[in-house]
Amino acid sequence: MAGKSSSVAPTTYSPSPTLKKQQRNNQQQPIFKDVDWVRPDGRAFQHCRPAFLRTGAVNSASGSAYAEFGNTKVIVSVFGPRESKKAMMFSDIGRLNCNVSYTTFASSIRGQGSEHKEFSSMLHKALEGAVMLESFPKTTVDVFALVLESGGSDLPVVISCASLALADAGIMMFDLVTSVSVSCLGTNLVIDPITEEESYQDGSIMITSMPSRNEVTQLTLSGDWSTPKIHEAMQLCLDACLKLGEIMRSCLREATSAPHE
Amino acid sequence: MLDKREDRMGVTDVSGDMAGEMEVDAFRRLFPLRFYERHLLESIRPDARPLGKSRDTTVALGAVASADGSALAKIGHTTMLAAIKMEVMTPASVSPDEGCIAIDFHMPAICSPLVRPGRPAEEAPVISKQLTDVILSSGMVDMKELCLISGKAAWMAYLDIYCLDADGALFDAALLSAVAAFSHLHIPAVSVNDEGRVVSVSEEQVEGNSIKEPLNKGKRKLTLSSAPFALTCILHKKYILADPTAEEESIMETLVTVVLDATGRLVSFYKPGGAFLAYTSAVQDCIALTRQRVKELQKILIEAVADMELD
Question: Which residue ranges have biased composition labelled Polar residues (chain A) (predicted)?
Answer without folding.
Answer: 1-30
